[in-house]
Amino acid sequence: MKIVSWNVNGVRAAVKKDFVAEYKKARSHIYCLQETKAQDDQVMEALSTLPKRNIYSVSAVKKGYSGLATISKEAAITVTPHIGIEEHDQEGRVLATEYESFILVNVYVPNSGSGLKRLEYRAEWDKTFAKYLAGLRKKKPVIVTGDFNVAHQPIDLARPKPNYNKTSGYTQVEIDGIAGIMNVGFVDGFRYLHPEKVQYTFWSVRFGARAKNVGWRIDYFLVDERLVPKIKKCTIHDQIMGSDHCPISLELDL
Fold first, then answer.
1. Between the CA of residue 20 and those of 16, 49, 115, 143, 231, what are the distances in Å?
2. DSSP states of 139-157 as a string?
3. C or N terminus of the chain, fewer CB within 10 Å?
């Protein structure tokens, strides 16, 4: 079972930058997209040239904002958009697809924003999301993937000291938020396999950050602790361009 996840920073833009070719090369069973920046019908149109697949999507009320798509070879048993709380669901940030042996949650976690304007909202969102995942785990094991908009540990960003508690994505509130999510029964797949590896998934478009590799690891596979023995690989594909994020993949022996 191979799952790929990528914040494409606009699905229509990604398709123009050869996303379809990258998709075919990945040879995945399931491919999750974040920040599609499109309504559901626009997502379907943008992905219409893919090989025959099951495509599920969720979009924000605000057009051109947020949004997710999950592309699956196998039809999902159930598809659940949102988490059932109106305040959060308007932004199109969660899409759960259930399969025989697990539930996959595709997520685009809110950014705390410039000047940390949404930090309080983000903290509440993280707590709500942790409770939501704890509920899902009662049914069957869960895999969560997507853009979490936080570097969990100092090793996960190039410049931890100047960013700590000053920059969105590396405040103690956000660090505690992802820790709280993991504490309901998840393991960071990449860090589990690569405890000391320095590799990033996101680079600012300013100041030549990607060329200098001044990056952040903010995209994750959080794997249900019951599935951890089945992890084979968790890879960051930082050679693939086309977005300010790069794809990540998880391979499981299921």
1. 9, 8, 36, 24, 27
2. TS-EEEEEE-S---SGGGB
3. C
41-55 tens-digit pLDDT: 999 999 999 998 999
Give yes or no: 176 in active site: no
Domains of the chain: 2-252 (3.60.10.10)
Count of CA atoms in the C-beta half-sphere (13 A) of 245: 24
DSSP symbols for 62-83: STTS--EEEEESSPPSEEEES-
Tens digit of pLDDT for each residue in 6-42?
Answer: 999 999 999 999 999 999 999 999 999 999 999 999 9
Q: Residue 30: which of 64, 81, 68 has the closest Cα? A: 68
Determine how β-strand 30-34 pairs with β-strand 2-7.
Answer: parallel
Catalytic residue among 23, 31, 132, 147: 147
Q: Report which secondary-structure segment, H or E, holds 56.
A: strand 54-58
